[in-house]
Structure formats: C-alpha cells, structure tokens
Amino acid sequence: MSKSTDERGRIYLPKDVRERFGDQYRIVELPSHVALFPVDEDPLEGLRAAVGDAFEGTEDADLKADAREAIAREVREETDGRSQDDEE
Known about the structure:
This is AbrB/MazE/SpoVT family DNA-binding domain-containing protein. With 88 residues, the chain is mainly alpha-helical. It has helices at 15-21, 43-51, 60-87, and strands at residues 25-29, 34-38.
C-alpha cells in the first residue's frame, strides 16, 4: 500500500486498516525507512498476548516499575554518552 502526505504532512489510513489495527500508532524511525506499529488500548494486555505466559504471575505494577527503570537507565546512558562526546 502506498500513501502520500497532504500539505500538512498527514497520512490517512484506510478504514479497513484502522478497523484491523486501531487508531493509535507508534512511529519508529529506522536507518532506511519509517515504520508504524499499532499501540494497544491496554499496552500491558497487548504485551501479555504477545509473549504468552512469560510474565505469568507478575503484577502490572511490577512490570510498569521495571519498564520505568529500564527507560531511566537508557536515558542516563544516552546522556552520559553525549556528555563524553561533548568533552572530546
């Protein structure tokens, strides 16, 4: 499927695509292209459906806390990397 943007940069998805995948998407920039990934209304439910029983018995609050810690760690590492690049 090929789509063009309008004068404001918007892309309109066909109704059948929206009905199948929903109305919210994450835009991911890759080296050679841009990809749209549907975002579940309940991301934790979507995660559990995607990974099966890998998180069985794990509380939602624990999953959220682990995700927040991982994101904070990534931000610190990226910030530290930029600081080191600036010093060089």
